[in-house]
Amino acid sequence: MDIFVIQGGSPLSGTVRVSGAKNAALPLMAASLLAEGPMEIVGAPRLRDISTFGKVLRHMGASVERLDAGGDGRETVRIDPRTVGKAEAPYELVKTMRASVLVLGPLVARHGRARISLPGGCAIGARPIDQHLKGLELMGAKTSLVEGYVEVDAGRLSGATIYFDMKTVTGTENLMMAATLARGTTVLKNAAREPEVCDLARALRAMGADIEGEGTDEIAVRGTDSLRGTRHEVMPDRIEASTLLLAGAITGGDVTVRGADPFAMDAVLTKLAESGAEVFADPGSVRVRREGPIRSLNLETSPYPGFPTDVQAQFMAYLCLGDGFSIVRETIFENRFMHVAELRRMGARIEVSGNAAAVKGVQALSGAPLMATDLRASASLVLAGLAANGTTEVLRIYHLDRGYEALENKLARLGARISRVKE
Length: 423
Ligand code: EPZ
Description:
Structural class: alpha/beta
Strand content: 25-35%
Bound molecules: ligand EPZ
Largest sheet: 4 strands, mixed
Helix content: 25-40%
Strand order of the largest sheet: 22-23-1-24
Number of helices: 14
Shape: globular
Radius of gyration: 21 Å
């Protein structure tokens, strides 16, 4: 297993380009299952989760290929669903990536049935899919749990009004996809508003779907008989962009992220400005510079447009060097403070009580050997290592490789002293 070795203490500066969004590319790959022809996803990031999703689609019989990069260096994933014969996602693949659940809606809509391994919990929480199944049942599907697999049977789905008990990103995406081929109109209430949901809606509309309201709490989908393939450019990854900007802020540097969309990152940029960093936002790039002290502040995660839970761990690392006290409250997942124990080993002063962490800023962190536990926690440890005095080793960075494309190369381009070592 690979390790990151980081020599901390040098400010990062310079310009780096953001990759395509993992959490937009995954539902777009699932949407290909709805189409009568091939789908091309431009700018899909080179990540383990993307290749795992490709294996799930191949397991069903689809053809999945990564086309050579075009002039701008961005690669395209081409999926042809016309050879899909098996509407099933097996345990050995689903257990490595929960997002496989996104094939559920498209398979039931296009093939009338699906059999997917019930995704287990993961490090950050139980992560049930009850809302996904409730929605499909309201649309006429029969669901059952057989030997750890969810089996869903439906003739043609019928439109329904579905109220989500809580904001769920993949729940909204799954049912929006299912509704595109249903008979009649579906209304999703209390729908997730994330930019990735909107990116998916744009692609579905290009495929011939009749959707309106994405980005609001209420999405209406008028079912149609079939959808065509399309070529869609993935939106930039707002979580990776936030992580790269925080790498500049935590080290007292000056980092510009090309290709980032500031309008999808408003909550993070607002908090960075509140902490005393200077934020310069243009339509195609975002720059953050920090020269003065990090002003401690309080932070609470919430569904979009609130502060994203996927940036909570990274921002907490930053607040460990604040000039006072910060309270970080995690309201989305029940166990998303796994980075705290590792940050403490670097000298951070953090006390956790329930879903809140009290962070008392310290003058400096010291490098240490650390263990990554989940995708965003590992990013938090890398940021802390960049700012710490001395050497930090982050073990088990396969967690990181799930969601960040060649992060060490991007950080090194900004002046970080970081290398990937085979353990
Ligand atoms: C998506 O996960 C993202 N993954 C997550 O990113 C992200 O953290 C999360 O949304 C929240 O923004 C992808 O898009 C592939 P949810 P998702 O359904 O859809 C509960 C990363 O780091 N819930 O919005 O699985 C759930 O337990 C990953 O890239 C139910 O109870 O999250 C959680 O507490 C991590 N029942 C809350 O809702 C359900 O049926 C939000 O979950 C569905 C969800």
